[in-house]
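Hi R.,

Here are the chain sequences for the assembly we discussed:
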Amino acid sequence: MEKFNKLNGHAIPLPIMNVDTDMIIPKQFLKTIKRTGLGQFLFFELRYDQNDKEISSFALNQDQYKGASILIAGKNFGCGSSREHAPWSISDYGIKCIIAPSYADIFYNNCFKNGILPIILDEKIVTKLQEASENTLNFSIDLEKQTISFVENNEQKEISFDIDAAKKNCLLEGLDDIALTLNKVSAINDFEDGQEKHTPWLYGNKI
Amino acid sequence: MTNKKTIYDKIWDSHIVSANEDGTTIIYIDRHLVHEVTSPQAFEGLRLSGRKVRRPESTLATADHNVPTKDREKGIADPDSKLQVETLEKNAKENDITYLPMSDKRQGIVHIVGPEQGFTQPGMTIVCGDSHTSTHGAFGALAWGIGTSEVEHTLATQTLIQTKAKNMCIKILGNVIPGVTAKDIVLAIIKKIGTAGGTGYVIEYTGEAIRNLSIEGRMTVCNMSIEAGARAGLISPDEKTFEYLKGRPMAPAEKDFDAAVKYWKSLATDDGADYDETVEIDAGEIIPQITWGTSPEDVVSIDGFVPDPKNETNPDKKKSIERSLDYMGLKANTPVNQIKVDKVFIGSCTNGRIEDLRAVAVIAKGRKVADTVHAMIVPGSGLVKEQAEKEGLDKIFIEAGFDWRDPGCSMCLAMNADKLKPQERCASTSNRNFEGRQGRGGRTHLMSPQMAAAAAITGTLTDFRDL
Ligand code: SF4
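And here is the predicted structure of the full complex:
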């Protein structure tokens, strides 16, 4: 996985609460057997009308937000299905960081597996950042220092954020979880041996 | 500190493989269900890194999301769906994983197939690349949905890296009045705690009304834990659980069964164990529930009204109500029992089991589906279908004008050909009413099978007890 350290870019405001994974990527695009190429379908039904024409009022279709790498979203972002197609489409579109007051659990975890930094901030601050992003400001995110900084009205501003140390490290190092776990294969073997003695019916029994 | 534990604590503690330096824990996974949509990239990942499936016999695969529910013998028409199902079949074969193809009568929705086969058992950790894996919690298993990266992690290591969630107890006090189902209970729960109410928690459902539910009803409740934001939901096992499992193909047999039951009995939450949060709901206050909006927390009793954004003081919530009303094509303050429907969908992992179909048959018998409505019934598995036909339920359905189909996820998420058209309104027994969930522009009202059946008959959202 790619390492995440610093990110510089514009942000797209998406002030809607409970954005679910069906809104992020509708199911007609889940029929793929690949991880890539999903960015074009991100927020498909918010982005295009029923004749596949761009809806101009939607932020992703506005020139000022083209190329943005940060998304500033509403409460409970990413609720719904466990589909990793949601973070895949976000990342493929070019968004590497999301800022929101809260996330659904599975989506939040899926972000870290795909090199996306999901930042949690107080709802009021998120609303302020959404307003700031409408002026196409440049935001600098430093994961190591856990800060977001930007210049607004000639004033340098900095906001810090909290993040779980293990998750932070996983992004900073771009770690491969499977390789890390396989380093502990002897502990897995021991566990299975113990479990098979204690609850033998869990072993064997194929249909 | 007491050493009294919840069932979640017990299952967690007995599955710790190793505590990592960074505070995370490697948790052993006993069972893994695999379907076609969230697995191809995981198998591809294994191939690219030269890794193998660690324990194929603990994994069960079936195709459900994409499969047609009509004219199966013609195969899958959509080339992308077809490729996805074929890819699963190929991956299962190459990795020696049991796969139930469309032609097998045991095929169906993963969360219906697992329990039916006895693959799901108390005390297990169970995962699947699907958020409704929480369904299996009905057996006192710790079951949760994962993304594709974690599917790959589970295949390769039979473990996952986790942090422990908090314990929440939802206690349903007293018993429900007749006609109130498991679906009404869970909708009432989500109305009370909201779609983010369970975030960071594993919910245990307790209380008389939960104990009184059948195992199938308990599955309906646990199924929608994810709509309440929880990582998982579970119910301590009891005699009903053991009785359900006895004799199932993959359940422990004979001597093993007795040993297993002894172990399963030790799993229930200890008296006096602490929860981080407890929510109590009075069962007697619940009447049939439906959703009016585009979030599963938009719940109202069948005698209620579509809400008025004017009465909402929180500006975000107000905006969200306005947005939902607009999408749903509803006017504020409309009595919900005057809302007309075009479609009815009875099925899904929430309500696609035999008891659900029996309940629908009681209402359908001797009545007719309204002329203005197309009502489909999609059994959750081939075995559910077979059982229903053995009992003659199919004849009652067909006689009443329902469309009786083959098993699969179908219009729960509309990935196959079963979809709503824009603006079509549907009474549905599934679990999500998100924008576009049942087809682009489609409008979904969630409810129990009885209520959906009544909507089919009258063409309007109706309290089925008034029929
Ligand atoms: S029936 Fe619906 S909720 Fe259940 S697994 Fe299928 S798509 Fe998901």
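The first helix of chain A runs from residue 21 to 24. The beta strands of chain A are 6-9, 11-14, 70-73, 97-100, 117-120, 139-142, 147-152, 155-160.

Let me know if anything looks off.

Best,
T.
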